[in-house]
Design goal:
The structure holds 2 protein chains of 2 kinds. Chain A contains 14 helices and no strands. Classes of the chains: A mainly alpha, B mainly alpha. At the A-B interface, helix 1, helix 2, helix 4, helix 5 and helix 6 of A face helix 1, helix 2, helix 4, helix 5 and helix 6 of B.
Chain lengths: 280, 291
């Protein structure tokens, strides 16, 4: 119905000019530069392209970037759910402040969170000094990378799960409990199905952000080739060597990952909307 | 994006229900709150506190002294200048894009929105790399630019372009859902009664979207001032010339000048805190909440 109404010719002016301006700006700032990247990589001959993107150093960096990002997004799925649950369901002193502070990683520059995390998790840092005797080295290892990626992905999960949790129909939970269902059964059969699309969307958003992250990671990573070198850093190193083609090839790999992630996020959102409609 | 204002009532309602005040649910409640607070404490509060603790390690005098450094001042100036160019441009873009997307139906609209969101999914390093490939010495326009003695990469224009790329979607993303939710009825009424397009925008649309616009602009500003990866790739890190505040933090940190590095970091942290405070006020004041 809404569609039918909007399809009538609108009296509101400015369609042509706003569409034109937006498209122009989009092309100039985003699309043409990205196309330049793809064309630069396409200008390499195929064998060299493959050699660059499958060099042992590059493969090691993908493993690290993907592994740490998956782990970080997984951590966020667990802790992000716990935080969203706490914020939606419980009232406690300071809840409003906690709710506001969740967005901190969106607003805090990555370089700042990078040096701050390194300081806190270094062997003599506030938290690192307790982990070190247990044999857990965080700073300058893959664990530190995961910690940094968890921090920057956290708000994505909390902010997608929060509204979904508010949608959970309380009367359904009550009805189930009245009928004798245990809390765990209610959780598994009512809460999880409602929140699942949001949880997976949050996971994918956090993962997508983590794979490309640079600023907060390089301070805590140690940046040892083959060991603690993430793919974005390898691109920067190639650029510093003036190996533009090599940097472009690796950049294309990252760009392809971004597109796949965007597609996944869109599909997840469509799926989530469909589920919501069925449940109503 | 904000917190549920109804959850106080919800919590009260929950507590009043039979079977919810037993020992086990109290335990679960405390467990969940403890897990959440520990996680946020270790990952957010401790690092943020560490920034200020490190900045003030040698006292206030040393803290203020670090801002006397001419390179630090140059970095602050460059960051402010970049934001002063980028934020207004992206604001105009955001408003235009939101008008076009929220007020009209057209083919390929959702694809168009995806394209606008694209910079959010692209690695900041790639965002910088594309401009180096276009305007760098070996880039497409490199030779031509050198001939005409125009420098884009390793200079202000490159930093501005990379920052624009990264902060491109913020205002638009804030405004599109808001304007879609508000609908077209009031604008249609204004136009039908004879108001022009500009008048309608400034007198009808702008007052209704102003809070969302304020938040979009300050978030865009915070990201513009804090961008590291993309700017790092195009800046060339010429000390005192092309280093923005985040890049200057890196230089000072790598020189073991921790007071200096964390002093600059503390300013950016304060900016982030102020951004969040404004966001909270905007949400409370306007009763407007993001999806």
């Amino acid at each position: 119905m809404k569609n039918a109404r909007q399809r009538e010719p609108s009296v509101i002016p400015g369609f042509g000019i706003t569409l034109g301006f937006t498209s122009f700006f989009l092309c100039a700032i985003v699309l043409i530069p990205l196309a330049a990247l793809v064309l630069k990589a396409a200008g390499m001959d195929w064998e060299r392209f493959v050699a660059v993107i499958t060099s042992p150093r590059a493969l090691a960096s993908y493993r690290l970037s993907f592994g740490a990002s998956l782990l970080a997004a997984g951590m966020n799925m667990v802790f992000g759910f716990a935080i969203a649950w706490t914020l939606v369901r419980y009232e406690f002193p300071g809840r409003k402040i906690i709710d506001a502070i969740i967005d901190m990683p969106f607003a805090l520059p990555t370089a700042v969170s990078g040096i701050a995390l390194t300081t806190v998790f270094a062997a003599n840092g506030w938290i690192g000094q307790y982990l070190e005797p247990m044999g857990i080295k965080v700073a300058y290892t893959w664990i530190g990378i995961t910690v940094a990626l968890t921090l920057i992905g956290m708000p994505f999960v909390v902010r997608t799960v929060q509204p979904a949790l508010q949608e959970v129909q309380r009367d359904l939970e009550d009805a189930a409990e009245t009928l004798g269902a245990g809390r765990f059964y209610v959780f598994r059969r009512i809460i999880v199905p409602t929140v699942l699309p949001a949880l997976l969307t949050g996971f994918t958003l956090a993962f997508a952000r983590a794979v490309g992250e640079y600023g907060s990671v390089i301070f805590i990573a140690g940046n040892m080739p083959m060991k603690t070198e993430i793919t974005p850093l390898l691109i920067v190193i190639r650029l510093e060597e003036f190996d533009y083609a090599g940097a472009a090839a690796l950049g294309c790999v990252m760009l392809a990952i971004s597109f796949v992630m965007l597609l996944a996020i869109n599909l997840l959102q469509v799926w989530g909307r469909k589920r919501m409609m069925v449940s109503r | 994006m904000g917190g549920p204002s109804s959850s106080a009532e919800a919590a009260a309602e929950l507590a009043s229900r039979p079977g919810h005040t037993n020992l086990r649910s109290t335990l679960v409640r405390w467990l969940m709150i403890t897990i959440s607070l520990t996680f946020l404490g270790a990952l957010l509060a401790a690092p943020l506190a560490a920034v200020f603790a490190m900045a003030l390690e040698r006292g206030w005098a040393a803290y203020f002294q670090s801002f006397a450094d001419p390179d630090t001042r140059a970095a602050i100036r460059l960051t402010l200048m970049t934001a002063a160019i980028v934020v207004p441009l992206n604001t105009v873009f955001g408003i235009t894009a939101a008008w076009c997307i929220a007020k009209f139906e057209f083919r390929g609209k959702s694809f168009f929105i995806t394209l606008i969101d694209l910079p959010l999914a692209v690695s900041p390093v790639v965002s910088g790399l594309v401009y180096v490939l276009l305007f760098g010495l070996n880039g497409w326009f490199g030779a031509w630019l050198q001939e005409h003695e125009i420098s884009i990469v390793y200079a202000l224009p490159g930093i501005v372009l990379a920052t624009m790329f990264v902060t491109f979607p913020y205002v638009a993303r804030e405004l599109i859902p808001l304007m879609q939710q508000l609908g077209n009825d009031e604008e249609e009424a204004a136009i039908t009664l004879g108001a022009g397009g500009w008048l309608t925008f400034f007198r009808v649309t702008l007052p209704r979207i102003r809070w969302g616009l304020v938040y979009g602009v300050i978030l865009c500003n915070a990201r513009a001032m804090g961008e590291f990866g993309a700017v790092s790739v195009v800046s060339g890190n010429i000390r005192g010339m092309t280093t923005t505040m985040p890049l200057h933090i890196e230089i000072l940190y790598n020189e073991y000048n921790f007071v200096g590095a964390f002093a600059v970091a503390s300013m950016l942290s304060l900016l982030a805190v102020v951004t969040l405070i404004i966001k909270t006020l905007v949400e409370r004041g306007a009763g407007y909440r993001r999806r």
